[in-house]
């Protein structure tokens, strides 16, 4: 007597010509975000180097940048960096510097890496505003 096998037609798994199953997912659903922060991961001893650091990667160009307060960091000569002022949610101007660690390509859609860094600065400023507002909400919720 032959046993009926499970049908996988309704699942995302497909059988190939060698009778192996593989997952069939549209590539568009696996799209990575344009920007990501790199941070420590539990269980990875080497990632402790990223604790208390603001390191950002531009996924499409594999460009890695780090952000510092301008008065607490002086980049080495010939290090590519951009200084900027962020007007925070409390109305205080904060001086920062974006330092380029690595870029797989110094061009992105005809623009040089400076354009990527300027976009990173905009993204970082939005993130700082978000963090300021979150900290303010958390502080207000303590008193309610």
Structure, explained:
Strand 8 and strand 9 form a beta hairpin. This protein has one helix spanning 113-142, and strands at 13-15, 21-23, 35-38, 54-58, 63-69, 81-87, 93-102, 107-108, 111-112. The protein is globular. The longest helix is centred in the C-terminal third of the chain and has 30 residues, at 113-142. Helix content is 21%, strand content 30%. It has one domain (32-142). It has a five-stranded antiparallel β-sheet, with helices on one face. It has 144 residues and is α+β, with helices and mostly antiparallel strands.
Question: How is the secondary structure organized here?
Answer:
Layout: E1 13-15, E2 21-23, E3 35-38, E4 54-58, E5 63-69, E6 81-87, E7 93-102, E8 107-108, E9 111-112, H1 113-142
Antiparallel strand pairs: 1-2, 3-4, 4-5, 5-7, 6-7, 8-9
């Amino acid at each position: 007597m032959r046993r009926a096998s499970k049908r996988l037609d309704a699942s995302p798994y497909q059988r190939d010509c060698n009778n192996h199953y593989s997952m069939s997912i549209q590539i568009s659903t696996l799209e990575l975000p344009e920007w990501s922060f790199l941070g420590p991961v539990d269980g990875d001893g080497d990632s402790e180097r990223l604790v208390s650091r603001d390191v950002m990667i531009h996924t499409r160009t594999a460009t890695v940048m780090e952000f510092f307060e301008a008065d607490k960091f002086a980049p080495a000569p010939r290090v590519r960096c951009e200084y900027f002022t962020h007007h925070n949610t409390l109305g205080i101007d904060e001086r920062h510097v974006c330092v380029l660690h690595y870029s797989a390509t110094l061009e992105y859609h005809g623009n040089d890496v400076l354009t990527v860094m300027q976009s990173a600065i905009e993204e970082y400023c939005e993130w700082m505003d978000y963090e300021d507002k979150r900290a303010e909400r958390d502080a207000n919720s303590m008193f309610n």
